[in-house]
Specification:
With 133 residues, the protein is mainly β. The chain has one domain: Virus Head Decoration Protein, Chain: A, CATH 2.40.300. It has no helices and 13 strands. The chain has strands at residues 5-9, 17-21, 27-28, 33-37, 40-43, 51-54, 59-60, 67-71, 76-80, 91-94, 101-102, 109-111, 121-125.
Length: 133
């Protein structure tokens, strides 16, 4: 698993999928975290404050005019490969490329399940960083 995958929601709801216009010249991978800027989504970056969720499909918008479907649940939990043991309550950042996590400086994500270094890491967007906050 080299990208984010939907795992579950804290409230038990099914994934909510919405479609967004992709910012011009942006290429997104399935499982990539996206951020909403000026009404369009682009690849997420650490310290963004309007994370939408993950793209459920790959999109090449180099010619402009494309849209992407994204999982948008506020309380969605995502699993991602991370070769580190994590503890509930840890905070992590979005890694460069928006397909993984890295050490914390901006607290983009909250770890919701304690895991070993050989298990996927389970995270959700921290309060104040989701586009619905």
């Amino acid at each position: 698993m080299a990208n984010f995958e939907f795992a579950y929601t804290l409230d038990g709801s099914d994934p909510i999928i919405e479609e967004f216009v992709v910012k011009n010249a942006v290429v997104l991978s399935a499982g990539e975290f996206v951020n909403l800027e000026s009404g369009e989504v682009d690849s997420g970056a650490t310290n963004d404050t309007a994370f939408v969720g993950i793209a459920v499909e790959a999109v090449d918008n180099t010619s402009d005019g494309e849209s992407v479907k994204c999982i948008v649940n506020r309380y969605a939990v995502y699993r991602v490969t991370d070769a580190n043991a994590r503890t509930v309550g840890d905070t992590l950042d979005l890694a460069s490329g928006a397909l993984g996590v890295t050490t914390n400086s901006n607290a983009d994500f909250l770890v919701v399940k304690t895991t070993s270094a050989t298990e996927p890491t389970y995270v959700m967007v921290t309060a104040g960083n989701h586009w619905l906050d």
